[in-house]
Amino acid sequence: MEERKATTGHLLALLTIQIWGTTFISTKILLGDFTPIEILFFRFIIGYIALCLIYSRPLRTKSFKEELLFIAAGLCGVTLYFLVENIALVYTLASNVGVIVSIAPFFTALAAHFFLEEEKLNAQFMTGFLIALAGIVLIGLNGSFNLQLNPIGDLLAFLAPALWAIYSVLMRKISALQHHTTGATRRVFFYGLLFMLPALLLFDFRLGLARLLSLSNVSNLLFLGLGASALCFVTWNRVVGILGAVKTSVYIYIVPVVTVAASALFLHENITWVTVAGTLLTLAGSYISERKAKTIPRKRIAVKSAD
């Protein structure tokens, strides 16, 4: 039973990464008519409405402390993560951001080591991380070997995976509360959108509904809202509950690989030998981290019956 559950977790993680790895295509198309903050807001509004329709039952928390987990998850995993990533793209190269954000599994493992009793750092995970990181760097450089450092943008880019690590740990704690995954994700989206409202006033945001007359814009927004947001956040949060924060985060290594394949398939971008080498290293590193990294099980305390 446990093995079948773990298999389901791995399959859901692969599905999620397949979708997340191709979102850049939709985002790139939408940037012609929308600003980054507009894309972010519209996709999560669509996702939130979809989750309300799918699971309309109210989610009741037992205490304000429990509610704080959802508040923090919405702030870190939805609002701040995507805002910081988008702002970083203004100050530094997209390749820099892509490489830096892909180290999220390391930050997640570090956060889990200190805040989750059952998930600890180990040598096997670190070995896989270093190998995968080398591959991700090669993919990011794409054969140019011209890495330009931009302190402000790069520092912001480092903040993004740290925020995702906090989100992953929070979702691991939320999953332990045994709430319905869709209902829990819906609550996280609500707080994410709530914290996003002040940002709309600071950035160049406009409704501009006339832009929705374009079939291309509508289809790409629906893909981001229904697929990359509603579906993928539910599946990702479910996987975190099954496999744990650290094992689930390892799949993030594969995002650049999917992106490279999608670039070649949909945008007809050339794949260099450096990219191929980077892809192989990334897959090898993720395999080592996932195959050999083992979580430390919780100690079972025998409770004697009062009878």
Automatic annotation (TrEMBL):
Transmembrane segments: 12-31, 37-56, 68-91, 97-116, 123-141, 147-167, 188-209, 221-243, 250-267, 273-290
Keyword terms, alphabetized: Cell membrane, Membrane, Transmembrane, Transmembrane helix
Keyword Cell membrane attached: yes
Domain of life: Bacteria
Pfam families, sorted: EamA
UniProt keyword Transit peptide present: no
Protein's membrane topology: Multi-pass membrane protein
Cellular localisation: Cell membrane
Residues in EamA domain copies: 8-140, 152-288
InterPro entries listed in its UniProt record: AA-Vitamin_Transporters, EamA_dom, EmrE-like
Family: Belongs to the EamA transporter family.
Name of the protein: EamA family transporter
Origin species: Paenibacillus borealis
